[in-house]
Amino acid sequence: MFQDFGYLLFIVASLAIGGFSSWYVNHQLKKYGKVPASNGLTGLEAAVGMLSYYGIHNVGVSEGQEGQDHYDPRTRSIALSPSVFRERSITAIATACHEVGHACQHAQDYTPMKIRSAIVPVVNLASNAWMFILMIGIMLNFLGLINLAIIMYACVLFFQLVTLPVEFNASSRAMKYMKTVGVPQQDLGGAGSVLRACAFTYLAAALISVLQLLWLLSQRR
């Protein structure tokens, strides 16, 4: 099943898409990580300022692990990488404002975020189990298990697709805020490049998953 030409093409396409998206986002992050923000703010200061601007006072901002910038709706907290939390670069303020965008979504009950949060337990189970169930179905030649594995994988794909508007909207909120508070145009251009690059990684991951699902469906025989 995993040795046909179609699967080889899928592997090559996945490596190409994944490799390019990884290079692209790292290139943009590093490029604008070296460009100082005109307003002189650190990522922490930019995040706190945006939270205050939108009247969100119950969300904390802390320094987390490198490359692990995120907003946690369960604890209403934002964790920023040291290179974002402490630095005064365009990458830092763009990333910080993006994470605050998620906090704004949560405060306003943004529907795609609510859907994504609701299906997290199912997706966690499905993402860990679908391959195991698929392999058992193949070994036993049991179509029912293969179909179950495909359904579970489709749940993972659905989660990725729902994630797209969540991420795009958070970036849109970040850009709108920066424009509103008068961030210079040259900084806005750099921030937009950073946020588009980050969004592309989610789009690339979803595309790879769509290709995987299409290939799995083609094997149901």
Care to describe what's here?
- This protein is mainly alpha-helical.
- The chain is built from 8 helices and 3 strands.
- The protein has helices spanning 5-33, 43-53, 82-85, 90-107, 111-118, 120-140, 143-180, 185-218, and strands at 60-63, 70-72, 77-80.
- A 3-stranded mixed beta sheet has the order 1-3-2.
- α2 runs parallel beside α4.
- The longest helix has 38 residues, at 143-180.
- The N and C termini lie close together (11 Å).
- The mean pLDDT is 92.
Shape, please? Answer: elongated
The count of helical stretches stands at: 8
**Structural class category:** mainly alpha
Average per-residue pLDDT, rounded, comes to 92
Q: Tell me the number of strands.
A: 3
Helix and strand pattern = HHEEEHHHHHH
Cα radius of gyration in angstroms: 20 Å
Low-confidence parts lasting 5 or more residues at pLDDT below 50? none
The separation of the N and C termini measures: 11 Å
Major beta sheet summary: 3 strands, mixed
The proportion of residues forming helix, as a percent range, comes to over 70%
Q: What portion of residues belong to β-strands?
A: under 5%
Record the strand order, biggest sheet.
1-3-2
Summarize this, please?
74% of the residues lie in helices and 5% in strands.
Write the layout of secondary structure elements.
Elements: H1 5-33, H2 43-53, E1 60-63, E2 70-72, E3 77-80, H3 82-85, H4 90-107, H5 111-118, H6 120-140, H7 143-180, H8 185-218
Parallel strand pairs: 1-3
Antiparallel strand pairs: 2-3
Helix pairs in contact: 1-8, 2-4, 4-7, 4-8, 5-7, 6-7, 7-8
